[in-house]
Amino acid sequence: MNTRFGIHHVTAIAGPALRNLDFYTRTLGLRLVKKTVNFDDPGTYHLYFGDETGQPGTILTFFPWEHAAPGRIGVGETQETVFRVPEGSIGYWTHRLIEKGVPHDALVKRFGESILSFRDPDGMRLALVAVPGIGVEPAWTDGSVPAEHAVRGFHSVNLLLKDAAPTGAILTDVLGFSEVGREGSLVRFRAGDTQIGGIVDIHVAGDFLRGRPGAGSVHHVAFRATDDAAQEEMVKKLVDDHGIHTTEQKDRNYFRSVYFREPGHVLFEIATDIPGFAVDESVETLGQALKLPDFLEGRRQGIEAVLPKVA
Ligand code: ZN
């Protein structure tokens, strides 16, 4: 079997669900691939955005709370979530962000690549990286963003940490990454030849303020395990070589997950590539109906009554 490593998904906290949905589908042009609830707090949504099928490395998910207080970025948190766009599309995106009134920074270079950083309506830090040659990759569109300019999954996440080495050891020893470069206060790790979601940058900040979770904060970053056996192997390595214990495996319906706090304090998850989002609805209709896991189906009426209307 072909083993793939890299980012599986990123999960963040948002304010009002409708505003969140509107931004990620209509401004960024991602596909809503699953509308479900937070399995641990079923009175709130869990919204999944991705490419056509929500393949690993394209999935950004949110827990939207109507009255979430804003978070504050700090050490021990994900600082920025970065998407890939075709190299020739960065001009289009700059115009689009201006036109839509999205707060953004001037274009900068990082590791030789052009980066356009911006913020979502909750202040979550996002960026687009211009990647040469990816214009030919498949792109999903519903017309809000033309296919030629569409986002092609994640480029990377940027973790703001005190030091690089302890987290770097987990990335390289357990999660399939290797260190590939350093620039200023950044250390770059890459997961083999994985192109979509294959990069983690550690931004070494030293002693800096701790983050405070809230709207606009990343809750956790999930990394890929091909299947349950691969996940089990990673869990064993964490315990045996690093003395880190994960949670028990949790069935998230679309993948199976374990969680642990890495040495730099960021919450990491290891999620299986299987079974994927087409397990309870067809690829054509992904994201249209509110999907509930079997153990919550009996409470559907009550759950639907408390969820804010988003469509
Ligand atoms: Zn997750």
Structure description:
The protein is α+β, with helices and mostly antiparallel strands. The protein has a single domain, classed as 2,3-Dihydroxybiphenyl 1,2-Dioxygenase, domain 1 (Roll), CATH 3.10.180. Helix content is 18%, strand content 34%. It has six helices and 16 strands. The chain has an eight-stranded mixed beta sheet. A hairpin with a 5-residue loop joins strand 15 (256-261) and strand 16 (267-272). The protein is globular. The mean pLDDT is 96. It binds zinc ion (ZN). Zinc ion is lined by residues 9, 11, 220, 222, 257, 269.
Summarize the structure in short.
The chain has 311 residues and is an alpha+beta fold. 18% of the residues lie in helices and 34% in strands. The chain has helices at residues 17-27, 90-99, 165-173, 228-242, 294-297, 300-306, and strands at residues 7-14, 31-38, 41-50, 59-64, 77-86, 108-110, 113-119, 125-131, 154-161, 178-183, 186-190, 199-204, 218-225, 250-251, 256-261, 267-272.
Structure keywords:
single chain; 311 residues; alpha+beta; 2,3-Dihydroxybiphenyl 1,2-Dioxygenase, domain 1; eight-stranded mixed sheet; binds zinc ion
Give the SSE map.
Blueprint: E1 7-14, H1 17-27, E2 31-38, E3 41-50, E4 59-64, E5 77-86, H2 90-99, E6 108-110, E7 113-119, E8 125-131, E9 154-161, H3 165-173, E10 178-183, E11 186-190, E12 199-204, E13 218-225, H4 228-242, E14 250-251, E15 256-261, E16 267-272, H5 294-297, H6 300-306
Parallel strand pairs: 1-4, 5-8, 9-12, 13-16
Antiparallel strand pairs: 1-13, 2-3, 3-4, 5-9, 6-7, 7-8, 10-11, 11-12, 14-15, 15-16
The structure holds zinc ion (ZN).
